[in-house]
Every structure is written in structure tokens, then in C-alpha cells.
Fold this protein.
Amino acid sequence: MAEPLNRTALYDEHLKLQGRLVPFAGWELPVQYDTTGPTVEHQAVRTAAGLFDIDHMGQVEVSGPGALAFLQHIQVGDVSSMAVLDARYSLMCYADGGIVDDIFIYRLGVQRWWVVVNASNRAKDVAWMRAHAAGFDVTIKDLSDDTYMLALQGPKAQAILQRLTAADLAAMPFHTGLETEVAGIATVLGATGYTGEYGYELFFPTARAVEMWQALLQAGAADGLLPCGLAARDSLRFEPCLPLYGHEIDQNTDPLSARLGWAVSFDKGDFVGRDALLKIKLEGSSRLLVGFEMVDKGVPRPEYPVAVAGQIVGHVTTGMKSPATGRFVGLAYVPASHAKLGSTIDIVIRDQAKQATVVKRPFYIAAYRR
Amino acid sequence: MSYQYDPNARYAKTHDWVRMEEGLAVCGISDYAQHALSDVVYIELPEIGAELIQGEVYTTVESVKAAEEVYAPVSGKVVDVNPDLADTPEQLNSEPYAAWIIKVAPSNPEELDALMLADAYEAFVQAEEAGGH
């Protein structure tokens, strides 16, 4: 039997806006809004701004005198250099190097940190963190139920948000956090996102969700701000090749093979998974995540097999017609021998081998990387 | 939701429409079908000369989120495919009754009599929506 689905505090707002609600990671969320649709929503974020209900994401507070040492132990990055209000992407790994989850870390105080985790992994992550907390003077608190999360993304995001806050957003560097008020609501603001555009993630009390949602939509209406669903969220994160847990990464993949080695610090001292990851780094990955583009016509999709000379050698993790470029592209795990740019691989689409070429990632260069 | 219906077409339960024009059965997908699919990004056009059997899959239409099979509303031989759909498959979304997919020389025109008229199809869609999706 399927578990009953959770509804976010914005459920009625989504219905009012003709959101098409679907099950996702245990939640009922809009995959698109029927007045716009995924393609229009995608373009709105690339050219103006989009607003996403991402309350399904989890927030875990890690605090106490041992918080820094604990975080150094349970995730792959070196967070000792993070100043208060810095924010950073990282991953938690098992001892064998497999990925527990990818996370976003905020340092909100000297001894107070937030870890933002994926909805589908929330319970697993919190349990895993607690299981590794022995010996550290640390308090781990799951704040997810009381903390609402929205994402405002796109080139107009800053101008829109500035209308609702006294904080000087122009002075806020990318990948930092801020405790402020937005629309009169106490908010933790993160200058980050999952779309390849500049933007913000907002954390605030769940009781104020409808108020915040409406205030943001109203503040951005004249700029072309649109509410955006999960389909646009997926295509927007895919083009700049930002990983999605369950697709590019999971417990059977490691950060190095997933091309996230830049997030791993081998110099910071020991951490869970270090030995296994160091071995992979020294010996090289046997399979690697690559970008590919279809040569034959067809739409690549998650789980489609990758074949070479009639043998199945890997699988597609994400694929689609890229809305920004019109190219039929994807990400796939292939043997290291076929990971070179220009390598020919086949994508098996409905039992037919369709030719593709390994191409450069990303398919869209994030605004903050230009 | 309210959808558009072409009064000159007949409809299969698989949400495919067919319209007789100059002795040929012109086939496409209904407004309800394109709405359910979401934004179409690609359609695999069948070969001219392919033999279709009513109710069997003749092609696949790919939207942003899924690949969906399309069923032949009549039996017969494909005599034409809509070349515009190769470059602008999104026409299936914007003009579902103008954006035909194939023209078929029907082998058994009486098959059309078993298909729904627009009124009956509208009632069928409403019943399907009321049943939850």
C-alpha cells in the first residue's frame, strides 16, 4: 500500500493557480501550472523569475560546541573555512564512498549550522547523522515540519525580493545566508538555488506560507514572475548539470564518478568515506557520468540503457529536449573507456539503439559561472 | 477543465480523433489528450505505407515528462504524414485538430461508425475526469 501523501501549506494556492498535482517523494506537488506549462515556466526562470514551492526539502539544525567537528566528520567538504553566514554545497557519504545525500550547508552562527537535505532522504539522513553523533558535543534537530521553504530564481529575483525586505541584497554575495525579514516575516535567506540562475531560497515559519507566497507573486507579477512546477525545476537543474538524488547520485554512486570531486576535501582530515573515495581517486573510476547528445532522433529518458557494440554498459540518469537550447541531450553513466568527448554510444529507446555522442557538460552555463 | 472538440471528427476511447477528408481518414490526438500529455517535444512519425490496425499503437509522442503511445482510430494504409510535426511538434498542443499526424486509406470505413461523435466523446471525457486521474 502506498503511504498517504503529504500536502504542503500551499496546496490550495496551487489548485487556485491550476497546478497539476502529482506525487513526488511522498508529497503532493504541482508538476506544472496548466495556465503556463513546463516550457513557459522554464523560460520565465531563464529570462525573468520563477517561484517554487520546495517545502518538501528538509532542514536539520546542527548546533553545539562540537558542531564543526561533527560536520567535518559526516560530510566530504572542508567547512572549517566557512565564516558565519557562508553557505556551501556538499555530500554525505557512506564508508564505502556511496552517497547518503547531497546537502546544502549554512553556517548561521559560530556553533549553529543548517543542513538542507532532499525530501526523499530526510528520515534516512537524520537517522544517519544521529548514528554518527556519538562522541560529539552536538544537538541535531529536524526543523523541517516547522520550516517552510520557497525558491525564488531568475535574473529578476533580486529586484523582486528587494521590494519586500530592508536587507541590502546587492551587498549579499552568492552562496551566503542572511537572517532578515521578508514581507514582515522572519526569514533565513540563502543566496543560492537549483536552476543555474541567480536567486534565493527562503526559510520561514510554516504558518506564514500563504502570506509569503502571495506577497512574492504580487511583488514580481509586473516582472513576469511565474509559479513553477516540478517539471520546470527538473529541466532547469538539468541544463547546468546539477545532480538530482536518485538519478545522477545515490548510494551506489560516489562523488568522484558523478563529477563532484570538487566538493571533496581530502586534506581536511578523516571523514566517513574518505578511504574509499581516496582509493577511487588514486585508481580512477571504472564508470563516469557523461553528457551526451543524440545523433539519431529520439528523446533520452532516465533508466534507458546505454549500449556499446550491442552490449548494455550503462544507463541514462536524466535526459530530455533541453528547453533553452532545443538539443536532445542527457546525462549517463558509461564505462571510463567511453567517457571521452566525442565517444560514440547508443541510447536504447524502446528496444532500438539510437546513436549519441559524448559531449561537454554543462548544457547551459550557470549565470554565476559566467 | 473544459476542452475543445471538433464537431466534424469521430473519437476513440484512446483520445484519438479521425476525420474523413476526400476519402482519407485524417488522424490526430484530441485536445484532452494533448493537455494530459503536457508540452510535446517530439513525435516519431510512422513510415508512409505502414499498415495500421484499429486500436493498435502506430507511433509514440514524447512530451516534456513522458513518452505516450498513440493508437490507430482506423485500420488501413498510411498514405501521408504531417511533415510540419518534425520541426514543430508543439503544434499538437496549440492546434490539436489542425495538427494532423497521419492520413490513412481506410481498409474498413465501417470501423468509423463505432467511434464516438463529438457529443458522446465530450461526455466520455467528463466521466473520465470525474472518475479521478
Q: What stands out?
A: The longest helix of chain A spans residues 209-220.
